[in-house]
Amino acid sequence: MIVVIGSPIGRSVDGAISAAGMSSRVALAAARAGASVQVVGKTGDDTTADAVILDLARGAVGHVALLRDGSRATPLEPAIDEDAATEASPPPPSHGPAIDAADVDLGLRYLTDFTVVVLAEPAAADVVAVASDAAGWAEARLILVVIAGSVLPEALPADIVVFEAPDDDPDGVFADLVGSFAAALDGGADPGDAFRATVDSDGWTEVAED
């Protein structure tokens, strides 16, 4: 099983709300690749969260460790009219409920049986430490998504896999890559083979250096 850590948000398209944000997209991509997936995160306690959870469930992503926080609304990306021709990316949604180290520890201790942990969003050092410790006692692989140029915390597992997130991922291409890679690891592939298989299946091309 794959555990994806991060707080899902909503995306409104033609009046319908779907699951969005890096954690949702990574989890859905891993589920499409055939993996069993659970999300550890936090949403608001509102209708947006209801719609997000339903969309995750339709995509075969579990949410038994997804917490509700009534003190903040679930972020919702601005409404998008798919018939409108625009290349501009929507502005970021407002800040919503954020998971902390205690939330992550609780979720990972509840799930227990996992082979891959994906920290799908940049996280504080104490959250990274909890995820790293859990991956250690579960003998799971840890995947960390960071902002380009980030300084990694010390004492991380030697076999950690780190992806630098792009500034923008409007089409979910990067999230699909991470989710598919996690699914390949969950299926037993070693990291090199998993990455090559993921790149090939997603249609990425290698650029030769001059």
What does this structure look like?
By secondary structure, the protein is α/β, with parallel strands linked by helices. The protein has a single domain (2-201), classed as 3-Layer(aba) Sandwich (UDP-N-acetylmuramoyl-L-alanine:D-glutamate ligase), CATH 3.40.1190. Helix content is 35%, strand content 25%. The protein is built from 6 helices and 9 strands. The protein has a 6-stranded parallel sheet with strand order 5-4-1-7-8-9, sandwiched between helices. Helix 1 crosses helix 5 (173-186) and helix 5 (173-186) packs across helix 6 (191-201). It is globular and about 45 Å long. Residues 85-93 and 206-210 have low confidence and may be disordered.
Task: Looking at this protein, list some descriptive labels.
UDP-N-acetylmuramoyl-L-alanine:D-glutamate ligase; disordered C terminus; 6 helices; about 210 residues; 9 strands; about 35% helix; 6-stranded parallel β-sheet
